[in-house]
Here is the input.
Amino acid sequence: MSDLEAAVAAGVIGADEAHRSLLQATVEVARAIFRAKASSVFLLDEEAEELVFEAVAGEGEGDLIGMRFPAGNGIAGWVLTTRQPLVVDDLSADTRWSRTQAQSTGYVPTNMMSVPLLVEERALGVLQVLDRPAESKLKLAEVDLLGLFANQAAIALDLLQRARRARQALEGEGRLAPLARVAARLEEGERDAAFELLRALERVLAESAD
Amino acid sequence: MNAIELHEYEEEEELPAWSLPAEAVDRIRVPVTLPDQVTREWALGGSTGAGVRVCVLDSGIERDHPLVGRVDRSVAVVRGEDGEPQVIEDDEGDLCGHGTACAGIIRAVAPDVELTSVRVLGAGYTGGGEIMLRGLAWAIEEGFPIVNMSLSTTRTKYVERLHELADRAYFRRVLLVASAHNMPVESFPWRFASVISVGSHEEPDPLTFYYNPSPPVEFFGRGLDLDVAWLGGGTLRCTGNSFATPHIAAICALVMAKHPDLTPFQLKSVLYQTASNAEGAA
Here is the structure.
């Protein structure tokens, strides 16, 4: 394995796993703290206008990762549009809430807390906590707590997306992929020379920029 | 679709004189003085908000919703052929339910206000800043005494223009009532001193509100476990600062119906003095 490949494996592929674990840990803690039946994180795919399950704890765990549904309507759409958390205590009263969509996940909740995942100026997705115990009356402090969890989940989601972008750049048709492939094919001695050449190129570019 | 005429908000206003000659003092007598004791009764007792024009800058308002009733005018901000945001008459109603929920709360607290909807949300999750700015500029030009903004932007590139608009509104007697963010993020315009920023309290009375001596959130309105108007003519029980904000906007409308000459800073003082945690508020 070349240095570059090793770097990619450690920094990008490994990072993907680590960030996914962080996201998973966040939904697990959120579920436990709120004594809820499930908690999930969705990534917003802006181009497709879809939400994608990235992490699930509790009901649906293990089956739903990668599943998509339209982001435009319903509660997640509201939360993304307004960038504000929303707590709904009786989903069955919502004529527009997508029961069919919920059924497609194999689990139909009765109450839901949703919060946008915000990083700097971007809304990356939504964190949801489903079915807190019916007898627990909501307190505003819980909404604040949900916001703190969302902050953590947003950071993990941001890191995951960065790692994915980096990997895409280094693999297949990615812009940096030829670099990775060339480095991988070089013999030991050639590699040092190749990196020296790159450093020289960097110096030239820096000088021409001045 | 015909764009509604909109004055450019970048346009310079004619500036007032920077000094006050003695002979001009009579010309600027102010019509309202607050009584020695500003009470709830003086401020809003018996008021239904009659005749006060309230603008809901949001996702639109559903037509004929039983909890909202009459909507006097609906416009939407959309991108024109040139890509610039423009204001058009709107008949699409509400795209996500948020504006209808806010309108229903205002109607419940101040039943006789005149509602106008400006739809600035619902056209995608990004790039809405220009749309929101144009909608707000329109509301200010139209001179609504109260504008409900249960929304905010986290995009710093809009902050300066938004700040300018908020100040412009303040000097033109357009009171912006803006929702504070429920999360630890920087967003605007609720952080500006020229608006009334609103967070939630946990009590069930729609007329209970508190002044916060430690801003940026200046007031707390009812925001927990509310049955709000929802799309399809129904209701939904939910929680959030978005719903506390229209409570305060409606309370402002109740006051403005009785005291239409109040300026935004006077109105804020009245809220301060009649808040549920104010000593002597009756």
Q: What stands out?
A: The first helix of chain A runs from residue 3 to 33. The helical segments of chain A are 3-33, 74-82, 99-104, 140-170, 177-185, 188-209. The two ends of chain A are 37 Å apart (CA to CA). The mean pLDDT of chain A is 81.
